[in-house]
Design goal:
single chain; elongated; mainly alpha; 174 residues
Length: 174
């Protein structure tokens, strides 16, 4: 029995992923399309040509240059998508590199730098903001917002309330 050497390209990669969920395959295609755009803009070559160039190098050069390509891809993505999304994208790129024969270990990945997500400082609404929201909402929404404001409940808790949850026997509704 003889085996024919299978050409390791994008089509073969997606064929090997055919057992995965269709949404996962769709995500992989979208990410590799972004990678292809990056290669065209950065190297003026297709992603296939970039990976073929990497494969022609020695193992050590290949790993170092692949890490450089990935870092540049991260920099490219950082202007387009959120930092959390970049990490998800890269799992697909690593899988594709691995399929193509560029074996990157977790040790190799330690030199890669990801952008940090800038966290917004949270602050409470002012009385003026609350008044603006209430003035510009319909009656049902106003009622909902006033219940949320006065009780401190979350919206899911408020929406889940039923008549039997209220005690109206006293002076104040509980």
């Amino acid at each position: 029995m003889t085996f024919t050497a299978k050409l390791r390209n994008k089509e073969g990669y997606f064929e090997s992923c055919s057992v995965l969920d269709p949404r996962t395959i769709h995500n992989k295609k979208q990410v590799l399309k972004q990678f292809s755009k990056f290669c065209k803009s950065r190297y003026k070559e297709s992603d296939e040509e970039v990976l073929n160039d990497l494969m022609k190098q020695t193992q050590d050069e290949r790993i170092l240059n692949a890490i450089d390509v990935i870092q540049l891809f991260i920099n490219y993505l950082s202007k387009r998508v959120r930092p959390q999304t970049i990490k998800a994208y890269l799992t697909h790129v690593y899988g594709y590199f691995n399929y193509r024969g560029i074996k990157l270990t977790s040790l190799d990945m330690k030199s890669i730098r990801y952008p940090r997500e800038i966290k917004e400082e949270k602050f409470p609404l002012s009385k003026w903001d609350i008044k603006q929201i209430l003035d510009n909402s319909n009656f049902k929404r106003k009622t909902l917002y006033l219940v949320l404001l006065s009780s401190g409940m979350r919206i899911g808790e408020t929406i889940a309330l039923r008549k039997k949850d209220f005690d109206i026997s006293g002076k104040r509704i509980m």
